[in-house]
């Protein structure tokens, strides 16, 4: 595996592999089994695998956890190499944003709900870095986990609307044995919070089963929220049911539904979701 920091080094690597299919996995590092699932799929489906590790300051708001976001480049490098990555791109903020252009990308209506409601500007920053990475890497396929369902929906819509020449591949959420979604932020949970955190997925499961039986969204949401409130010390940011991937509240004629929640613990904000195929219900 080749580790490259500068854009010139990345360009040179890609030039040496011109004509080969490229699978791309953008990450913020502190790799876990969820990231490895993306890398493994990219390895299976492409001739070359490029991964990036960049804690993107553009997607962090004031008082968010940019400075304390977990980092371990030595461990990440070892894991990436073991997963068969050909090139690991690890730029600095100065490499990625050498000057302020004054040009911005607005994620629009899809970002005004769920995580975007409490993190204004977050998805604008996601699209900023994804645009740059896609232009630099020029991947054939790019791989994203369904745990970040709103991010995935926004990226899919953005790529389709603006004709990016890349195929977005959805990869199912990877979970711990007790159901907790793998996340770099799980390390910030206390021992008691870690035990409680499993109830996010349990609450989503209760909500989906309630909806399947009753087709009543309000009842499904109420039961899901109640389960979290009764079984955790966390504070619910949101618990909602929307169409997927267009994230509409009116679920009539929807093909997929997103049951999603976010919960604040003392030092971590966790998200999770379940996507339901309506035609299978």
UniProtKB/TrEMBL annotation:
<feature type="binding site">
    <location>
        <position position="174"/>
    </location>
    <ligand>
        <name>ATP</name>
    </ligand>
</feature>
<feature type="binding site">
    <location>
        <position position="59"/>
    </location>
    <ligand>
        <name>(R)-pantoate</name>
    </ligand>
</feature>
<protein>
    <recommendedName>
        <fullName>Pantothenate synthetase</fullName>
        <ecNumber>6.3.2.1</ecNumber>
    </recommendedName>
</protein>
<comment type="subunit">
    <text>Homodimer.</text>
</comment>
<keyword id="KW-0547">Nucleotide-binding</keyword>
<keyword id="KW-0436">Ligase</keyword>
<feature type="binding site">
    <location>
        <position position="151"/>
    </location>
    <ligand>
        <name>(R)-pantoate</name>
    </ligand>
</feature>
<keyword id="KW-0963">Cytoplasm</keyword>
<keyword id="KW-0067">ATP-binding</keyword>
<keyword id="KW-0566">Pantothenate biosynthesis</keyword>
<comment type="function">
    <text>Catalyzes the condensation of pantoate with beta-alanine in an ATP-dependent reaction via a pantoyl-adenylate intermediate.</text>
</comment>
<dbReference type="InterPro" id="IPR042176">
    <property type="entry name" value="Pantoate_ligase_C"/>
</dbReference>
<dbReference type="GO" id="GO:0004592">
    <property type="term" value="F:pantoate-beta-alanine ligase activity"/>
</dbReference>
<comment type="pathway">
    <text>Cofactor biosynthesis; (R)-pantothenate biosynthesis; (R)-pantothenate from (R)-pantoate and beta-alanine: step 1/1.</text>
</comment>
<dbReference type="Pfam" id="PF02569">
    <property type="entry name" value="Pantoate_ligase"/>
</dbReference>
<dbReference type="GO" id="GO:0005524">
    <property type="term" value="F:ATP binding"/>
</dbReference>
<dbReference type="InterPro" id="IPR004821">
    <property type="entry name" value="Cyt_trans-like"/>
</dbReference>
<feature type="binding site">
    <location>
        <begin position="182"/>
        <end position="185"/>
    </location>
    <ligand>
        <name>ATP</name>
    </ligand>
</feature>
<feature type="binding site">
    <location>
        <begin position="28"/>
        <end position="35"/>
    </location>
    <ligand>
        <name>ATP</name>
    </ligand>
</feature>
<feature type="active site" description="Proton donor">
    <location>
        <position position="35"/>
    </location>
</feature>
<dbReference type="InterPro" id="IPR003721">
    <property type="entry name" value="Pantoate_ligase"/>
</dbReference>
<comment type="similarity">
    <text>Belongs to the pantothenate synthetase family.</text>
</comment>
<dbReference type="InterPro" id="IPR014729">
    <property type="entry name" value="Rossmann-like_a/b/a_fold"/>
</dbReference>
<feature type="binding site">
    <location>
        <position position="59"/>
    </location>
    <ligand>
        <name>beta-alanine</name>
    </ligand>
</feature>
<feature type="binding site">
    <location>
        <begin position="145"/>
        <end position="148"/>
    </location>
    <ligand>
        <name>ATP</name>
    </ligand>
</feature>
<dbReference type="GO" id="GO:0005829">
    <property type="term" value="C:cytosol"/>
</dbReference>
<dbReference type="GO" id="GO:0015940">
    <property type="term" value="P:pantothenate biosynthetic process"/>
</dbReference>
